[in-house]
Amino acid sequence: MSPSTIYLVTGSNRGLGLGFVSQILAAHDNAFVYAGAREPEKATGLKSLAAKYPGRMAIVKCVSADVEGISDLAKYIEKGHGRVDTVIANAGLGIMKGSVSEVSVAALEDHFRVNVIGTIVLFQSLYSLLKKSHAPRFIPISTAAAAFHSGVIELPFGSAAYGTTKVALNWATRKIHFENDWLVSFPMNPGPVDTDMLRNNVSSDTSGTFENMLSVYPILPSGEMVAESLLKVIDNSTRAKEGGEFIDVDGTKLAW
Ligand SMILES: NC(=O)c1ccc[n+]([C@@H]2O[C@H](COP(=O)([O-])OP(=O)(O)OC[C@H]3O[C@@H](n4cnc5c(N)ncnc54)[C@H](OP(=O)(O)O)[C@@H]3O)[C@@H](O)[C@H]2O)c1
């Protein structure tokens, strides 16, 4: 790492995003984190971290696909540090409900706005700040459920909006890799994480398939645990090794 590494993590109010902020601050004395949240004033988990690590983070407003708001955020980061080194595009919407025959247009639109447009707007807005970094990384958090080989596509519970939009996110990220030869960019699969997203999906799946699928895991890892693993991969990633690939939580390559 360079003498100071500047991170931006979106969707860090809770779940995996909060785990990322906590792990970055714990692992790197020299890191500064911009922790994106929709409602910074209500971000109690982030406020506790800010108290524990004074001067090492800023809780910033970051609503997916809010072009004006993210542009203001970029100006704020520019003023604070003049660049950003690692952007973790973690904010996501994941309601695993609605087969293709049933999914509502509203659900498709909501998922597309957050998972795809949100990530692209983030990249566009942070582009010039990433270009000023000596080691720029843009890392969207995807899911193995977006991989055609994963088996999730064959399961009876529907996930049309989530699956379709994470596939699109993977496409956009691989395209970002090919369009920008100065950047390290690749989508990552965190695997199952014990967060609100997963818990809500398990409890609303009346078929029990989801619960069965997860029963092979002795414990479901917390956001902190998964963030620690993902961060090791992200911090050591290079364009030659991981760039443009679909990378699993343990750093191995996944088939698309
Ligand atoms: N949990 C899993 O098992 C799992 C598996 C595979 C992939 N993932 C991916 O991992 C990432 C994090 O998921 P998670 O499990 O931590 O989910 P989560 O517990 O539902 O948290 C989602 C985060 O995203 C934020 N968010 C949602 N909509 C947003 C919007 N419109 N603008 C800005 N922020 C928004 C939420 O903000 P608020 O707190 O304000 O609502 C929250 O901080 C997602 O991209 C998800 O698809 C998770």
Automatic annotation (TrEMBL):
One of its GO terms (cellular component) is cytoplasm. Pfam families: adh_short. Keywords: NADP, Oxidoreductase. The keyword DNA-binding does not apply. One of its GO terms (molecular function) is oxidoreductase activity. Gene3D superfamilies: NAD(P)-binding Rossmann-like Domain (3.40.50.720). Belongs to the short-chain dehydrogenases/reductases (SDR) family. This is Ketoreductase (KR) domain-containing protein. It comes from Hypholoma sublateritium (strain FD-334 SS-4).
